[in-house]
Amino acid sequence: MTDVLSKAAPSSYRVHGATGEWEVIIGLEVHAQVTSNAKLFSGAATAFGAEPNTQVSLVDAAMPGMLPVPNRECIRQAVRTGMAIDAHINKWSRFDRKNYFYADLPQGYQISQLYHPLVGEGSVEIELEGEESPTKTIGVERIHVEQDAGKLMHDQHPTRSYVDLNRSGVALMEIVSRPDMRSPAEAGAYLTKLRSILRYVGSCDGNMDQGSMRADVNVSVRRPGGDFGTRTETKNVNSIRFVMQAIEHEASRQVDVLEGGGKIVQETRLFNPDTGTTRSMRSKEDAHDYRYFPDPDLLPLELDDAFLAECKASLPELPDAKRARYEGLGITPYQANVLTAEVETARWFDALLDQGAKPVAAANWVSSELFGALNRIGKDIAESPVGPGQAAELLALVADGTLSGSLAKQVFEVMLETGDAPGKIVEERGLKQTSDTGAIEAVIADVLAKNPGQLEQYRGGKEALFGFFVGQTMKAMQGKANPAVVNELLKKALG
Fold first, then answer.
1. What is the pLDDT of residue 7?
2. Could you say which DSSP state residue 200 is in?
3. Source organism's superkingdom (predicted)?
4. Quick one: pLDDT at residue 181?
């Protein structure tokens, strides 16, 4: 068997075979379910997890005489997605029929866009950790909209298969990349970034475990710098980790075949997540085998400037722009990347800043205290018991000296348990930090009196004991003394 070697940069990723190194060529076709309250050509609902065949209109079931009508919101979301990746938007596009028979395809064809897609060329910039060239641009060839098929269920009866048409007619964006990726890591970074963009835009929820985003993985191998080899397509991979595993296995498999004197057959394959392997499904059809032709029931889509302007104006601040803004506020690149990776986190953090929190202190607190607490209680940021307003109040109490860092941790724990505001907790539990010099001086005098041996050692030159006296003073004051004042007064007392 071959071994996969990952070198310093993902572009240098190679499969090491018996006869030398091979380069991997990767392209992805991502199917993203459009966020909409209806299907692409009907008004049927699209809720996940509904009872089988409860979200099926007469159009979805291909009843005689039923005609499709495009859903404006589905078109709008696809256009907004194209704009988010700086793609060319085609003002004129057309729907085609892709003809093939399958039991979960009632019409006997799928309505798609082959020759004139809604969205043309664009690009996605990916970030690569720990590399000399940390960014790479992946080309996107096109985005077209199409309807999904239904679902065959083979495990409901010992001798029969059942058909669920709930997904029949659901609107999909097929986002077709160029074969620009050269390693599983690059493919994973591309999918991660694309998912983030879709979620920011709101055009797809990105829930891969629910099938609303999945990828067809095209893989071929070649000698480094040589001509492209024959590719295979692994269908419907539904997690980023599985996509990376499928690439790694398929590349190694192809090298084994070629080095054994065989040929790669252009085919469709399936990925088995339990074994991390792929298996052949069927030989790959070319476009002409589907007998594409313009759908006679649908007029071409013609977009006017007003519609495009409205789509453009509706776009939110996207991940790259938001990350750059955060860095401009003094937040570290690493923290900015963490805070913008998921749209819910970015929205929560923006709300925190809107409440007046200082950016750097807020970023430090969110990435350490808040994330740590949420991980401990098993909640995501959308479920956080502490809202941005409460967090801003807590940070303000630290900034004005009311709370020390240790007291703030105590208050935060109570906030998580009770949902109370930090100011209320401070007052009710007497957790306010004190800067009363008289009270602190009295405690310091008592600490020195109780520790004559350590005092003598300190004055004899063992200056490391200064921390001991600070700790004893803070302990005696139950952590409520202002650390800066304690340090200042101790220096005076110790001479």
1. 38
2. H
3. Bacteria
4. 96
pLDDT digits (tens, 9 = 90+) for 104-163: 899 999 999 999 999 999 999 998 876 666 889 999 999 999 999 999 998 889 999 999
On the 0-12 / 13-18 / 19+ scale of CB atoms within 10 A, 45 is: middle
Integer-rounded Cα radius of gyration of the chain: 30
In the chain, CATH 1.10.10.410 sits at 437-494
CA distance 284 to 71: 31
Fold classification of 437-494 (topology level): Arc Repressor Mutant, subunit A (1.10.10)
pLDDT value of residue 473: 76
Six token digits for residue 203? 């055009």
Q: 284: burial class by Cβ within 10 Å (0-12, 13-18, 19+)?
A: middle
Distance (Å, whole) CA 179 – CA 470 = 62
Contacts of residue 431, defined as CB under 8 A and 6 or more positions apart, other chains included, come to 403, 407, 410, 411, 425, 480
Pairing outcome for strands 109-112 and 96-99: antiparallel
Q: Could you give the C-alpha distances from 247 to 4, 12, 13, in angstroms and in order?
A: 11, 15, 12
Distance CA 75, CA 97 (A): 18
The answer to whether the CB of 342 falls within 8 A of the CB of 199 is: yes
Please provide residue 414's backbone torsions phi and psi, each rounded to the nearest 5 degrees.
-70, -40
End-to-end CA distance of the chain: 73
Query: Looking at 128-242, which runs of residues are DSSP E strands?
Result: 135-147, 151-153, 162-164, 171-177, 213-222, 232-237
Half-sphere exposure of 299 (CA within 13 A, CB side): 4
Which stretches in the chain have pLDDT values below 50?
Answer: 4-10
State how far the alpha carbon of 311 is from the alpha carbons of 40, 117, 173, 316, in Å: 18, 17, 16, 11
Residue 391 near residue 371 (C-beta atoms within 8 A): no
Q: 91, 200 in Cβ contact below 8 A?
A: no
Please name the residues in contact with 271: beta carbons below 8 A apart, sequence gap of 6 or more. 217, 234, 237, 242, 245, 246, 277, 278
Segment 216-244, tens digit of pLDDT: 999 999 999 899 999 999 999 999 999 99
